[in-house]
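Schema walk-through. Below, the input block comes first and the output block second. Nothing else is stored per chain. Lengths vary across the set, and this one has 123 residues.
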Amino acid sequence: MPPVRARLVALVVPLAAAVAAGCGAAPTTARHGRLDVRLREFQLVPAHAQAAHGPLLIAARNDGRLVHQLAVGRGRYALAVTPALRPGQSAVLRVRLPAGSYRLFDPRADYDTLGLYGSLVVR
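--- output ---
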C-alpha cells in the first residue's frame, strides 16, 4: 500500500468508527412529564432521553430475567432509586429535576458498568 494511501486509511477508519459509534437514535423526549424506561440484561431503553425541568414521572419496568433497579443521579450518586424489581415488575420514580445532565443506571453490583445505563438531559 502506498504511504499516502496507508495514512489516509489510518485516519479515515478510526474516524468512521467514531462517527458510527456516535450515531444512534435521537433522544427520547418525555411526554407530559412522563418517561417510560425498560431495563434488561444489560441494557436500558431508551439509552438517551430528554425532559423539561420540573416534575418528572419515570416509569421503570424490568423486562429482563434478573432483579434490577433504576436510579437517576449524577455520577455514581443516586438522587432517587426504585425498589428492587423482579422480572416483569414496574415502579415509578417521581422526581423534580433542575436543568442539567443526569445518569439513569442500575445501582446493583456492577450492572451499570456492564451496559445498563443511559443519559437524561433536563432542559
